[in-house]
Amino acid sequence: MGGRLARVSRTFNVENRARREISKEKPTPAPRHPTSRLEELAGRPEIQEEIYRKDNRLLTFLKDVYVESKDPPVRVKDGGGGHLPSKLEEKRLTKLGHLGDQDVKQVSKGRISVVEAMMLLNNHKLQPQIWTAEKIAVEYCLELKDVNSLLEFFIPFTVKEFPKETKKAI
Q: Where is this region: Disordered (predicted)?
């Protein structure tokens, strides 16, 4: 409702206000900034003399300054397209799932695919004595703290089948 009221107030008498602005002879100029007075002062000869006069005290300060500069090492830019990775990552083959061509074939060390994550969570849930955090970390090239966090905070869904109710129970 507020949007409609705002729109009505904006569009009220808009054509007349536009014609009034267009029919003005010349728009009023913006106020001048105080720095425009420097142009007036620049024409005076004593100020020009002050500008071009050498100050010996400042020149001696300038002679005492010593600056060392070193060029950065020159990088050779390859004319080929594409972004090159900054460091070469080690890859490992994944434990392939059931999707075949859609499965991820290689994963960086320290990472796992979604299929692998579901497999390791399910294996740990079904056989926690065999699939311990240490064994999972070694098997999938992961850090132990990451595996412990994964096993603690991510739990796969369980499917529970309830017995069919008889007509008498309904």
A: 1-43
What is the pTM assigned to this prediction?
Answer: 0.40
CA distances from 131 to 125, 140, 162 (A): 9, 12, 29
Q: Do 163 and 152 meet the contact criterion of CB atoms below 8 Å apart?
A: no
What is the Cα–Cα distance from 166 to 72, expressed in whole angstroms? 83
| Residue 30 burial (CB count, 10 A) | 6
Query: Strand, coil or helix: what is 124?
Result: helix
Assigned domain for 3 exists = no
Q: Does the pLDDT value for residue 4 go beyond 60?
A: yes
- The boundaries of the domain holding residue 121 are 91-153
Does residue 80 have a pLDDT over 60?
A: no
Look up residue 36 and give its amino acid: S
